[in-house]
Amino acid sequence: MTRAIVLVLDSFGLGATPDAETFGDAGADTLGHIARECADATSRGPLALPNLGRLGLFHAHRESTGAWAAGITPPQSVDGAYGAAREISSGKDTPSGHWEIAGVPVRFEWGYFSEREHSFPPELLEALVREAGLPGVIGDCHASGTEIIARLGEEHVASGKPIVYTSADSVFQIATHEDAFGLERLYALCEIARRLLEPYNIGRVIARPFTGKSADDFARTANRRDYSVEPPAPTVLQKLHDDGGQVVAIGKIADIYAHCGISRTIKASGHDALFDATLDAMAEAGDRSLIMTNFVDFDMVYGHRRDVAGYAAALEAFDARLPELLARLEDDDLLILTADHGCDPTWPGSDHTREHIPVLASGAGLAPGSLGIRESFADIGQSLAAHLGLAPMDDGTSFLPAPKAQAR
């Protein structure tokens, strides 16, 4: 069977890209800085990722940065094909990264709410309040989700006013209490916001429900929902779906692609549940299937919160489970591990960072060794198209070996 499995380690960057200075990210290095802090912390020891290492992770990081990660003893040889890819899309956000991975770079400029305070146009908030029948909104600023919920959650519950906030990404986020405000009411509010934001060219509206009784125990739930605009052209997911293949989207993948080209959506919360869902999908997937999973906690729980120790522990837990997946690969499967952007947990602020992403691939006739620095994330989409028997994408260069000529 010809199948593909794509695991997106959300935010797992491999070092700043040549254009990172434009984004204020020169010197960012998600993997490198996590490894450095682990190596310097005598209480825990070096970052231990033996399975990712054998797939070529640390070799790819060296190609990106020119140096081995601190505290790492790289394997003598690798079992996978490895490289690092640069982004040609205009931003460093989640939709841009994922769409480019799927062969469709974002060459237009997203709209942004750049003011740190009073971030949103008054007329936008007035329309939202009016159309949704709200008593008002609170927040209206750049913020980390956990921070603003802790700071304003009690006021929200008491007043009924949703918390609205943004970041350096093209995003409008709405946080409300699942019980006090209502989950379906939050989703309906986000749909109104999605429509009102069309003139502003904002990439995503994100519903951020939370529970708890006070600032001491407020916690975001697994019922997050992203309302993305549709990709500007058919992705490799859409092309496979339209050509009769199956696309299984696990985690937030379906939301990121605005449910375009998705055959089946599987929701799961937490990396173990996402990994379990991926293994279950592999057991059921037939010929010409694409399984794509986003491991969001690397970004949402650890990267944005600048939690280096938590990020390191999550990487090691992910690495420990990789053999389960590797053992289930069939001869014709193509496995790709990658990311959508960086989110260096040692970097100032709480935003994404413009970095190379890993391209770790195995199967489909690939020989172990270097794939080099890829000029676009779209090389992944082009390789998937080649593997799954689809017409070539408009962007990207496949890193798969050329098909052998048929004997005459």
From TrEMBL:
Which InterPro entries does the record cross-reference, listed alphabetically? Alkaline_phosphatase_core_sf, DeoB, Metalloenzyme, Phosphopentomutase_DeoB_cap_sf
Q: Where is it located?
A: Cytoplasm
Which stretches make up the Metalloenzyme domain?
A: 3-391
Pathway(s) this gene product operates in, as recorded in its UniProt entry: Carbohydrate degradation; 2-deoxy-D-ribose 1-phosphate degradation; D-glyceraldehyde 3-phosphate and acetaldehyde from 2-deoxy-alpha-D-ribose 1-phosphate: step 1/2
Q: What is its EC number?
A: 5.4.2.7
**Catalytic function, reaction form:** 2-deoxy-alpha-D-ribose 1-phosphate = 2-deoxy-D-ribose 5-phosphate; alpha-D-ribose 1-phosphate = D-ribose 5-phosphate
Q: Which residues bind Mn(2+) 1?
A: D10, D340, H341
Q: Which metal ions or organic cofactors does this protein require, according to UniProt?
A: Mn(2+)
Keywords on this record? Cytoplasm, Isomerase, Manganese, Metal-binding
Q: Which Gene3D superfamilies match?
A: Alkaline Phosphatase, subunit A, Phosphopentomutase
Cofactor comment text: Binds 2 manganese ions.
What broad class of enzyme is this?
A: isomerase
Residues holding Mn(2+) 2: D299, H304, H352
What's this chain's function?
Isomerase that catalyzes the conversion of deoxy-ribose 1-phosphate (dRib-1-P) and ribose 1-phosphate (Rib-1-P) to deoxy-ribose 5-phosphate (dRib-5-P) and ribose 5-phosphate (Rib-5-P), respectively.
Stated family? Belongs to the phosphopentomutase family.
What PANTHER family does this protein map onto? PHOSPHOPENTOMUTASE
Which NCBIfam families does its entry note? deoB, PRK05362.1
Protein name in the entry: Phosphopentomutase
Organism equals Halomonas halophila
Gene assigned in the entry: deoB
